[in-house]
Amino acid sequence: MARPQNNPNTKRRKITATIREQTQCRFCREGKSYVDYKDIDTLQKLLTNRGKIFSRRRSGNCACCQRKVKVAIKRARFMALLPYTA
Amino acid sequence: METAVKRLYEGMFLVDSALAAQDWQGILDEVLRILNRAGAEVVSLRKWDERHLCYDIQRKSRGTYILAYFNCDTDKVKGIERDVQLSERMMRALVLRTDGMTQQDIEKATPAETQPQQDTPGDPDMANVPPAAAVDQDIISEADDVTETV
User: Which residues of B touch A82 (CB under 8 A)?
Assistant: First the structure.
């Protein structure tokens, strides 16, 4: 029996070797165990234009650092260094 | 039985810029009064920055931030926050433990200190002087004077 050749449901998956340039998040690379809420320039990069926090997928942070960033941003917002909403 | 533990804390105090420009020494005295009331030993007290607030607080759009490091009993920190809320000069304060912070983080130059350096990069005399240490000593020596008189 002949094998079905052009079955649309069985797509061949392309195997591509993806090499990640950076295997660690920006804070792990710097070797910092503390995310400073006063470091506005760094925290500003992790916010959208509307002042929302970027997801881990977008920011590239590890889970541990994302939690620290979340706390730091909320502290900065309380001190009016960063906006709650813009 | 309770045992009071002393820890190093970081306190950021937000005051109105107009008020700080008018009576800077009075603002510093107010911060010191609040810290002394809680029995805190002030390690350093300096201006962090003067900037536009991201949102209005008490109808003020500009604020001056004062950064203080102090050793304090753990159970007295609540009193500092309460005193700040009662104070009419203070707009807001944030007191945090400095557990995860390194000495470098604590001694890091503030934006208020780095900004004038960027304006005058070619000044060789200013480049040799460590601004953070100089400002700290000045303010603390003033602060000591104040506490003695009070």
Answer: 54
